[in-house]
């Protein structure tokens, strides 16, 4: 029948396309990888990544947690985790993550001057991401939280296709422009077969320090509406 022929063509096309994809290989010593992403910059993705990493560690003191800053152009994890310095090298020439608050951290920010801009083309960025994924001695981690750069470009695709990911969390503010980009981010992960665990709405409410009155300066339910449209959960 024509439907079975169409299905055979689709299967063949999928097999041909998958030949060009890298084979997923786990990061040594890491059990679960959770990625934090957003379509848009400036929605508090790094802040949420830090909070999730700290919360995972606080929730169960037997768990080891790591935090990887995959934002090559604008690494902010060193500042947020109050870390400075260069990683030491192991005898196997792997970088040792820096540690604070019980969380092992790795970032491009440890490898360049704090004020130096990263003026690189795509191939150099991909090479740096590969090093951050494969040339770090994480020891034994129960969770590795990856703070992704904004957008749906090379870095997101490379990370999603190179390592097995337990799930992605999408961060957005309630504004329309941020929601449009968050929608694209969620669809990208679905396309590369990464489960989306849910959405987080950030910068929801301003509370007056004097009278404690709460004002939804960016709107109240934007992310809730998007979650409903995508059939996803609101995580917070």
Automatic annotation (TrEMBL):
The gene is Nubpl. SUPFAM superfamilies: P-loop containing nucleoside triphosphate hydrolases (SSF52540). It is found in: Mitochondrion. It comes from Spheniscus mendiculus. This is Iron-sulfur cluster transfer protein NUBPL. Its cofactor is [4Fe-4S] cluster. Belongs to the Mrp/NBP35 ATP-binding proteins family. It comes from the Eukaryota. InterPro entries: Mrp-like_CS (IPR000808), Mrp/NBP35_ATP-bd (IPR019591), NUBPL-like (IPR044304), P-loop_NTPase (IPR027417), YlxH/NBP35 (IPR033756).
């Amino acid at each position: 029948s024509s439907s079975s022929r169409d299905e055979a063509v689709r299967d063949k096309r999928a097999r041909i396309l998958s030949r060009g994809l890298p084979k997923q290989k786990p990061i040594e010593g890491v059990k679960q990888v959770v990625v934090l992403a957003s379509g848009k910059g400036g929605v508090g993705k790094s802040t949420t990544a830090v909070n999730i990493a700290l919360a995972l560690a606080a929730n169960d003191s037997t768990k080891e947690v790591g935090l990887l800053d995959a934002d090559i152009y604008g690494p902010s994890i060193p500042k947020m985790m109050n870390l400075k310095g260069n990683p030491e090298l192991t005898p196997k020439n792997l970088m040792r993550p820096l540690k604070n608050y019980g969380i092992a951290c790795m970032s491009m920010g440890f490898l360049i001057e704090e004020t130096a801009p990263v003026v690189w083309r795509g191939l150099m960025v991909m090479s740096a991401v590969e090093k951050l994924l494969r040339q770090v001695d994480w020891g034994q981690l129960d969770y590795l939280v990856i703070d992704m750069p904004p957008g749906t470009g090379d870095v997101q695709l490379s990370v999603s296709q190179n390592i097995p990911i337990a799930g992605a969390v999408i961060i957005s503010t309630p504004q329309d422009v941020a929601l449009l980009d968050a929608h694209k981010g969620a669809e990208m992960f679905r396309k590369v077969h990464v489960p989306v665990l849910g959405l987080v709405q950030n910068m929801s409410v301003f509370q007056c320090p004097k009278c404690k009155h709460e004002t939804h300066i960016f709107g109240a339910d934007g992310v809730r509406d998007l979650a409903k449209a995508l059939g996803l959960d609101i995580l917070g």
